[in-house]
Specification:
0% strand, mainly alpha, 4 helices
């Protein structure tokens, strides 16, 4: 019997606490007006922080421009060999291009 009375008291306490919280969360026009006043500065502040910290990843000006590196002599020789093997150039053209590449390095 004591268990039941204890549980009833605990349940009553929980119900009372819930009622108190409900009273606090009811509609309050003054509070809504205050929230509307704060909304614009908050949105402006968050937007400014996002822009200033780069969260939007905006790039102005030259920034870090990556230029394509010219192929190395070794890569050009490999490409020439592939072209010769595929039949896109003759042996004579291959040798001429190979000599030109090796002379320019």
């Amino acid at each position: 019997m004591e268990e039941i009375e204890t549980k009833l008291k605990q349940t009553k306490c929980c119900v009372d606490l819930a009622r108190k919280n409900m009273v606090r969360t009811t509609f309050n026009p003054h509070r809504l007006k205050h929230m509307k006043k704060l909304l614009v500065p908050i949105v402006v502040g968050v937007s400014a922080m996002a822009l200033l910290t780069g969260c939007l990843d905006l790039h102005f000006g030259p920034g870090n421009i990556t230029k394509a590196q010219p192929p190395t002599v070794g890569q050009q020789l490999v490409d020439l060999q592939k072209a010769k093997d595929s039949g896109a150039m003759t042996d004579a053209e291959y040798e001429a291009q190979r000599a030109r590449l090796l002379d320019n390095k």
